[in-house]
């Protein structure tokens, strides 16, 4: 198979394996990451084939859906081996999906260019309109309110806290200028949304 055919086949397999998966880590998330990764790679370079495969496979074995065990690298090796992808490419993709998550906090200096591209694309999906929706959806899934008017002391975690605790920190964690440019636009949209939301809740006049 050609590289394009392999990418198409992997995409089909990911769709099948992730059917029904939710909490912001569904197949639509993966396809958005793939789109962003392609855009960033076109600007900064790197191996497009590796970037596309890693973007597609980065959440396939997410720990939230496998009893707390991260299995994306394992699943990536299995799928790509069956498609006769060469060993070096398989191992590169496996290293990427095993190290780019926010919770792994890998030293950027240890990441390949392709890993930086996919990591940036993944983090961008937590920003902008999509980031707002994912925050609300995740909160609903775990029973966490988005906002509480009487929560001034921060006694209970809310979705709105998530913006300052994590989302507004992502811009400075990005690896590429291409991603930072996109993030700046998305972050501004989020701040505008929060200003309007708080205004409608009566916090501001």
The helix/strand order is HHHHHHHHH
Oligomer class: single chain
In angstroms, what is the radius of gyration? Answer: 18 Å
- End-to-end distance: 61 Å
Basic shape = elongated
**What proportion of the residues form beta strands (DSSP E)?**
under 5%
Q: What structural category do the secondary elements indicate?
A: mainly alpha
Q: What is the number of strand segments? A: 0
Number of helices: 9
Helicity range of the residues? 55-70%
Q: Which parts are unreliable, with pLDDT below 50 for 5 consecutive residues or more? A: none
Mean pLDDT: 88
Describe the sheet with the most strands.
none
Protein name: HD domain-containing protein
Pfam family, one: HD
InterPro entries: HD/PDEase_dom, HD_domain
Domain HD: 26-127
Question: Could you explain how this protein is built, in words?
Answer:
The protein has 205 residues and is mostly helical. It is 61% helix and 0% strand. The chain is built from 9 helices and no strands. The longest helix is centred in the last third of the chain and has 24 residues, at 177-200. It is elongated and about 60 Å long. The chain starts with a helix and ends in a 5-residue tail after the last helix. Pfam families: HD. This is HD domain-containing protein. Residues 26-127 form the HD domain.
